DNA sequence: AAACGCCTGGAAAGCGCTTTCCATCGCCTC
DNA sequence: GAGGCGATGGAAAGCGCTTTCCAGGCGTTT
C-alpha cells in the first residue's frame, strides 16, 4: 500500500490532491478545503467533517504549501540571513529564532552569506522570490553606504510586496530592530577593567566597516575617555572576525604596545584566538601579565582556560524577539526592542599588577 | 516610484507579475516566461528577449517561487533537519550543507528538533508539504523501533512524492547515506590511549538510544576486547548530549571507578563538561592523573585547556556530500559515502603514569 | 402564513507561472 | 517550384488550492 514504485519516478506523478480527498469523501473541493485548512471562519457540518478527515487520513493526504501560498498570497515561511551558521554567535541567535518559529508554526529558510557582502542582497532577493512572509537580517550592518543603500532598496521592495523585515542590530531608523547593547557592553568591559586597576587598555577589534564593531569600540572609547584614561594614542588592532584574526591582531597589539596590561577583544571567537596568541606566540601569562575580556559570551567562553571574562549578550533572546516582532501586526511605526549587555567576570581578568 | 504605501498593506495588493512584464514588453506570457525563467529548451529572438529583459528590469519584477513550484511540480528548496543549530556539531554540518547549496542555487529550509524525537517526523512532514525537493536528516537515528518505522513510512511517502532523502549517519540500508566512521573513530581513540600505556579506560557516552553513540561505543569496546583489555566490567556512564550531561557523567564515572587512568568522551561538547567536572568537582588533573579524549573535533576543542585530544570527523564535508548526493540523479540503487575519522592528539592525553 | 435572516454546501473564478500544442515564416532540398 | 523542416511566437490548459458568491433549507419574527 502506498508503495513507492521507483525512486526516480517523475515528480508530477505524485501527490494526493485535495480534489481527490473531496471526491473520496463525496463532498466539494470547497468543503474539503474548509475542513482541512479552514481558518475557522466557516463551519462545516459534523458528518461531512468526519468524512473529509477520514478520506484525508486514508489517502495520506499532505497539503501542498506552495499551492496554498499562491492561493492565499502569503506563506508561513520566514527567512533568516546570517553570516555564518557555524559561528556560535549566529548559532545562538538561530536557535532562539527557531524555537520561536516552532511555537508559531513557521518554517525558517536560512541563508549564510559567509561574510560576502553581496550575498546578503542576493539572498534577500531570493527570499523575496520565495514570498517569505518575513525575514530576519541577523548579520551586522556595515558602513559601506552604497551596499547599505542597495539593501535598503531591496528591503523597501520586500515590504512593498507585503513582507516584513527585522534587523538584529541597527541598520536604519525606519526598520524594525532588535538591538543589543553593544555600546553599553563596550563601556562595561572597560569600566570592569578600570576597577581592577588597569589603566593601559588595548582593544582587538573586528573589521571596522561592521557597525557592531563600531558600536562596541565606540562604547569602549567613550568609557575610557569618561574615566580620564591617559591620553595615549588609541591602542586598537583590527582583524578578521575569526579565531585566527583575533590571534594575529592580539599578537600585533601586544608587540606594538608591550605596556598594555589589559585587552578587550570585541568577540569571543577572536578572544579564543587572542588567548592562544598571547600564551603560545608571546608567552604572556593571562591574567597575570595581561587581562583579557571577550564579547558575546558564547557557550564555550566559560570553558576556555583561563575562563573568559566577557560581555554577555542575550543572543537566543534576540532571535526569539526578532520572530516575535515579525508576527506582531505593527502599525506604521517601526518597532524596536533593546536587549541589555552584562559583564561576566571570570578567570581571564585579574587586578592590575603593582 | 515603487513607493511602499503602508507597511500593513494587504499582501495581495503586491507584486509585479510576469503577465505585467509581458504586457509592458508587448509579448505573450509564454515568451516572457521563456526569457526570464527559460530552461534553455527554447530560444527567443534577440529583439523580444531584449524587450522582456528591459521590462522586467524597469518594473522590478521578482519571480514568484511558489507559483513556479506549483507549475513545475518541483522546487529548489531542500530541507535540513538537525537536533540543535547551536550545537557546533550541527553548526559545522549545516555550514557545509549551505556552502554546497549555494553552489547549486538551492535554498535551505532548516528545522531543529531540539532533540524531541517526535519533532523530526513532524518537520519531515512539513517539508513534504513544502514540496521540498529533498531533505537531509542530519541527526542521529535511534534504536526506538516504533519511531524509526514511522519515520521510514514518512520517508517512503516523501520519496513517493518525488523527493529525495539523505541521511547523515546510518538509518537504514535502502536510504542514501553519508556515513562517518564512528566505529573506527571509537577504535582509534582506544588504541591511541592504549599506546600511551592506558589499560583502565572508561567511557562517557551520550543517550544510549542514539545510533551514533552506539556505534562509537561499539568501536571502542571492540578495540578494547581486541587489545585484550582486562575483563573488568565495562566502565561506561551515560549522560545527556550536553556540556552538563558530560560533566555529571564524568564525575559519576570517576567516583565509581577511581582506578581509571583515561576516559573517552563520545562527544566534544560533553568532553568540555567532563574536563570541567574532573578539574573542579573532583580535583583530578588532566592529563596527569587521567587522560581525556573527545569526539568530533569541533572548532573549540583545540582551545580548551588542556587542548582536547579528539577524534576528528569531517563535519563540513559531510554536509557538502549530503547536498551533492541529493542532486545526483541516482538510479534505484541507494548511494553511500563513507567519510573517515582521525585521532588528533593534543594536550588532554599523556602517557599513563607508572 | 409570509418574510426574513442564518447556516451549510457547492460552483467557479482566480493566484502566477510552465508547457504543450498550433500557427507562421523563412529557407533548404530535390 | 512544391514539399519539408527548424526556428520562433502565442493561445490556452492546467498545477493545487482559497474564497467569493449563490442557492437552499430552516428556524424566527410579526
UniProtKB/TrEMBL annotation, chains A, B:
InterPro entries associated with the record: HTH_LacI, LacI/GalR-like_sensor, Lambda_DNA-bd_dom_sf, Peripla_BP_I
Domain HTH lacI-type: 16-72
Keywords: DNA-binding, Transcription, Transcription regulation
PROSITE patterns (alphabetical): HTH_LACI_2
Family annotation (CDD domains): HTH_LacI (cd01392), PBP1_LacI_sugar_binding-like (cd06267)
Name used for this protein in its record: LacI family transcriptional regulator
Keyword presence, Membrane: no
Gene Ontology MF: a single term: transcription cis-regulatory region binding
Gene3D superfamilies attached to this UniProt entry: 3.40.50.2300, lambda repressor-like DNA-binding domains
Species name: Streptacidiphilus pinicola
Amino acid at each position: 500500500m502506498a508503495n513507492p514504485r521507483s525512486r526516480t519516478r517523475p515528480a508530477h506523478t505524485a501527490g494526493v490532491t485535495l480534489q481527490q480527498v473531496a471526491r473520496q469523501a463525496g463532498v466539494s473541493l470547497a468543503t474539503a478545503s474548509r475542513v482541512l485548512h479552514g481558518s475557522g471562519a466557516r463551519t462545516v457540518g459534523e458528518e461531512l467533517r468526519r468524512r473529509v478527515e477520514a478520506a484525508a487520513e486514508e489517502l495520506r493526504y499532505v497539503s501542498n504549501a506552495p499551492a496554498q501560498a499562491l492561493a492565499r498570497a502569503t506563506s508561513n515561511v520566514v527567512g533568516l540571513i546570517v553570516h555564518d551558521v557555524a559561528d556560535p554567535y549566529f548559532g545562538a541567535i538561530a536557535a532562539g529564532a527557531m524555537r520561536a518559529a516552532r511555537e508559531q508554526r513557521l518554517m525558517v529558510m536560512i541563508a549564510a552569506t559567509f561574510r560576502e557582502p553581496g550575498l546578503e542582497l542576493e539572498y534577500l532577493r531570493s527570499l523575496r522570490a520565495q514570498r517569505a512572509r518575513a525575514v530576519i537580517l541577523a548579520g551586522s550592518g556595515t558602513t559601506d553606504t552604497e551596499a547599505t543603500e542597495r539593501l535598503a532598496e531591496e528591503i523597501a521592495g520586500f515590504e512593498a510586496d507585503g513582507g516584513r523585515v527585522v534587523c538584529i542590530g541597527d541598520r536604519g531608523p525606519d526598520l524594525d530592530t532588535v538591538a543589543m547593547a553593544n555600546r553599553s557592553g563596550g563601556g562595561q568591559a572597560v569600566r570592569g577593567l578600570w576597577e581592577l586597576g588597569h589603566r593601559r587598555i588595548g582593544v582587538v577589534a573586528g573589521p571596522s566597516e561592521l557597525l557592531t564593531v563600531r558600536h562596541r569600540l565606540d562604547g569602549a572609547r567613550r568609557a575610557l575617555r569618561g574615566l580620564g584614561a591617559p591620553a595615549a594614542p588609541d591602542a586598537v588592532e583590527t582583524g578578521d572576525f575569526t579565531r585566527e584574526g583575533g590571534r594575529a591582531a592580539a599578537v600585533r597589539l601586544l608587540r606594538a604596545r608591550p605596556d598594555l596590561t589589559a585587552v578587550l577583544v570585541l568577540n569571543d571567537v577572536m578572544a579564543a584566538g587572542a588567548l592562544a596568541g598571547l600564551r603560545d606566540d608571546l608567552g604572556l601569562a593571562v591574567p597575570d601579565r595581561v587581562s583579557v575580556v571577550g564579547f558575546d559570551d558564547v557557550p564555550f567562553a566559560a570553558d576556555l582556560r583561563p575562563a573568559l571574562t566577557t560581555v554577555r549578550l542575550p543572543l537566543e533572546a534576540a532571535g526569539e524577539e526578532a520572530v516575535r516582532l515579525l508576527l506582531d501586526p505593527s502599525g506604521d511605526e517601526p518597532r524596536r526592542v533593546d536587549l541589555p549587555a552584562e559583564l561576566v567576570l571570570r578567570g581571564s581578568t585579574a587586578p592590575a599588577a603593582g
